Amino acid sequence: MPVSDPAGLARDIKAAQDRAAALAPISARYPRFGLDAAYEVAARVHRARLEEGAQPVGRKIGFTNPAMWAALGVDFPVWGRVYAHTAVVVEGAEARCALRRYVEPRIEPEIVLHFGAAPPQTRDPARILDCVDWIAHGLELVQSHYPAWQFQAADTVADNALHGALFIGPRQEPAALGPGLAGRLARFQVELSCNGVLRESGRGANALGSPLLAIAHLLGVLADRPADEAIQAGELVTTGTLTRAYPVHPGETWSTALDGIALPGMRIVFEE
C-alpha cells in the first residue's frame, strides 16, 4: 500500500466529515493513492462510525452519470455507505434541510431500491428487480470536503463517495408500478428545477443505462471485496444521479417531477 498510515487518514477524513471542514485531497499528498487504499480508509471510517453507534441502512453509488465524468476528473463509479442518520424519509410534500452541516453541497435526483432479498451477482435486470421489495424517488445531497470539488476518484472513495444525506420519497412495491418496470426504469424522465425554473431533464438511462444496471455494476465491484461487504436483505441502494449535480444554497427550493413511472416528485427547501 503506498499509504503508510491509513488509520491516520481515516481519522482525518472522519474529523472533516464531523466538523464540516475542508481537507486537502489525499492524492495530493500520496500521488499513488489508489482504490484499494481508498476503500481501506473508508472501511476504517465505517468501523469508527459503527463503534459510535451509527446504524448502516444501505449504499450509495456515485458517478453513475458519464456526463459528469470529464468535469470531475473521474471515469468510473464508486460506492459509499448510507446510515440511519443520513437517510431522511420525506413525509408530506416538502422537506427542509439546513446546509451548515455540509461542505460545498450539491443535489442529485436518483432512484432508490430496497432489497427484500440479497441480490445475486448478475447483470440481468429482471433477476435484480426480483429481489427488490420497494422503489422510491430520492434526492441525494452530496458534498466535497476537498475544496472546489478538486479530487481524484480515490479521494472520493475515502470520503464515503461524497455522501451527505439522502431524502427518500414515498415507497412503492414493484408490482404497484405496473408491467414492464425494468424497461421503464431506463426510459422514464425526471425534471430538476430550482425556484420553479427548470435546470435539467434527465432519464433513468443516465445511471449506467438504468438504475438496475447501476446495481449490476455495484454487485460486480463488491464481488472482489470482503464477503461482509456484499449487499444484504434489508439494505437500500440509491443508484446514482440522473442529471448533473447542481450546487445548492440557502434560500433555494429544489423540486423534481417524474414522467413515465408512477413515483411522485419531491421538493426540498434549503436553509442556512
SSE layout:
Elements: H1 6-19, H2 26-29, H3 35-51, E1 56-62, H4 69-72, E2 78-83, E3 87-89, E4 95-98, E5 106-115, H5 125-130, E6 132-142, H6 153-158, E7 163-168, H7 181-187, E8 189-194, E9 197-203, H8 211-222, E10 236-238, E11 246-247, E12 253-259, E13 267-271
Parallel strand pairs: 1-10, 3-7, 4-13
Antiparallel strand pairs: 1-2, 5-6, 5-10, 5-11, 6-7, 8-9, 8-12, 12-13
Helix pairs in contact: 1-3
Note down, in words, how this protein is organized.
The chain has 8 helices and 13 strands. The longest helix has 17 residues. The mean pLDDT is 95. Strands 1, 2, 3, 5, 6, 7, 10 and 11 form an 8-stranded mixed β-sheet that branches. By secondary structure, it is an alpha+beta fold.
User: Poorly predicted ranges (pLDDT <50, ≥5 residues)?
Assistant: none
The major beta sheet can be summarized as: 8 strands, mixed
Count up the helices.
8
Q: What is the chain-wise order of helices and strands?
A: HHHEHEEEEHEHEHEEHEEEE
Shape verdict: globular
Mean pLDDT: 95
Helix share, percent? 25-40%
In total, the number of strands is: 13
Beta-sheet strand percentage?
Answer: 25-35%
The class by helix and strand makeup works out as alpha+beta
C-alpha Rg, in Å? Answer: 18 Å
Q: What is the terminal-to-terminal distance?
A: 41 Å
Give a quick summary of the entry.
The chain is 26% helix and 28% strand. With 272 residues, it is α+β, with helices and mostly antiparallel strands.
List keywords for this structure.
272 residues, alpha+beta, 8-stranded mixed beta sheet, 5-stranded mixed beta sheet, 8 helices, 26% helix
